[in-house]
Amino acid sequence: MRSLSDFAQKKQAALDQAARARRPVPLRRQGGHVLDETGQRFVNFASNDYLGLSQHPRVVGAAQDALQALGLGAGASRLVTGSAAVQHELEQDLAQLKQKPAALVFGSGYLANTGTIPALVGPDDLVILDELAHACLHAGAQLSRARVRHFAHNDLDALRSLLAAERARHPHVLVATEGVFSMDGDRADVASLSALCREHDAWLYVDDAHATGVLGQGRGSTGGHDVPLVAGTLSKALGAYGGFVCAADDVVRVLHSRARTQVYSTALPPPVLAGARAALAVMRDEPERGQRAMSHAQTLCRGLGLPETESTIVKVVLGDDRRALGAQAALAEAGYWVTAIRPPTVPDGTARLRIACTALHEDDDIAGLVAALGPLLA
Ligand SMILES: *Cc1c(COP(=O)(O)O)cnc(C)c1O
After folding, report:
1. Average pLDDT, stretch 271-297?
2. Which contacts (CB < 8 Å, 24+ apart) does range 306-310 have?
3. Looking at residue 310, what is its pLDDT?
4. Which of 39-43, 269-273, 326-330, 374-378 has the lowest mean pLDDT?
5. 88 part of the active site
6. Dist. CA 109 → ligand 1 center (Å)
7. What's the 132 CA to ligand 1 centre distance in angstroms?
8. What is the mean pLDDT of residues 282-293?
9. Is it the case that residue 18 has pLDDT exceeding 90?
10. How far apart are CA 108 and CA 251, in angstroms?
């Protein structure tokens, strides 16, 4: 189609012009390293496999066993014939981890958020989002057709004003944020959010994608707090794939019937579910993995003279897109794989390096990155 090609070429030219084009690079992950097509090795500082579980022998073994026993695909949606025992067992494990009565596993974290929010709120309701909340929380809010408002990042006074002004006008209000912000590495004040939302009868929804497995002995950011809706992903610290929501039994029952990304989408492959279960077990047995990743991140911050991070994620804001891409290239030259994060993933003028520390890193990797990156910040 000529018109389609014309469209694609113009779009691509504009992205290239703005240094906003993105391109997947074939890489092979091996422990804490990646290898490119030429076989060159880089220390991997761009992976969310924070505990190094995606290639852990117990995780791989559990997935292999399930593959042999049950095959690859789930065959259908949960409600048709796709509801494997391992999925129920994984949900019990997740509910226990998050200290919630029930859990529901989705095809991915993206699908968990875009399925759950529209199942709970609709056109008369209001969704209030932290402005830096993940793209799929915004997408879920849009899909719900509720009114959508944003508050300045982690600004509880702004949220309080919004709730005071808006709460009475809507039957239901859902407030969505992240436990650890994916591109900034800072945390939400879950205790205060919980109190504020309770006061206004607003439903607090915390996406704990980057806190699960790392903070709070693996429980994430919500442990000990009253958070009615806790979402997460199996794809980061748990090294697998899939998403989940933990909530009260009655809420999860409604999601079974109403969350469209669950009802109309095939269940996760059994080997993935079994691997995720094994990852949860390793995480429980070896809590030092999370501590090691956190301690690397803190060492890195000290080395670079940055404020202490509250997670395994260290951001180095460089501002200009080209400067961030240049720093990425210079670090690759020195043997470190770090990704530049550009708008629209982050706000304009805040292009950055996003450095993810994991349990697979050695002390020398951190020291080497400090030595390579320090001069670029001067
Ligand atoms: C990664 C991420 C997601 C998406 O999870 P997937 O399982 O990769 O689809 C959702 N929310 C947040 C905050 C994330 O960082």
Report:
1. 97
2. 309/185, 309/186, 310/180, 310/185, 310/186, 310/187
3. 92
4. 374-378
5. no
6. 5
7. 13
8. 96
9. no
10. 19
Question: Which runs of E-coded beta strand occur in 213-273?
Answer: 229-233, 243-247
Catalytic residue among 236, 296, 315, 361: 236
Reply yes or no on whether 210 is catalytic: yes
Q: Is 222 helix (H, G, I), strand (E, B) or coil?
A: coil
The per-residue pLDDT for range 224-260, each reduced to its tens digit, is 999 999 999 999 999 999 999 999 999 999 999 999 9
Note if 207 is an active site residue: yes
CA angle 185/298/225 to nearest 5° reads: 50
The rounded distance, in Å, linking the Cα atoms of 262 and 140 is: 13
Q: Residues lining ligand 1, CB < 6 A? A: 108-110, 134, 136, 178, 182, 207, 209-210, 233, 235, 243
pLDDT digits (tens, 9 = 90+) for 105-163: 999 999 999 999 999 999 999 999 999 999 999 999 999 999 999 999 999 999 999 99
CA distance 113 to 142: 11
Going by C-beta distance under 8 Å and a sequence separation of 6 or more, which residues neighbour residue 22? 15
Whether the predicted pLDDT of 295 surpasses 90 = yes
Of the candidates 367, 218, 223, which has an alpha carbon nearest to the alpha carbon of residue 304? Answer: 367
Q: Which atom of ligand 1 is nearest to the CA of 241?
A: 7
pTM of the model: 0.95
How is the beta sheet containing 203-207 ordered, strand by strand?
102-106, 243-247, 229-233, 203-207, 173-178, 126-130, 147-151
- Calculate the CA 304 to chain-centre distance: 25
Which tokens sit at 276?
């995720």
Residue 23 and residue 26: Cα distance in Å, rounded? 10
Atom of ligand 1 nearest to the CA of 178: 13
C-alpha 333: how far from its chain's center?
28
Active site residue 130: no
CA of residue 110 to ligand 1 center, whole Å:
6
**Active-site option among 125, 130, 207, 321:** 207
Query: What residue type is 315 in one-letter code?
Result: K
- 37 flagged as catalytic: no
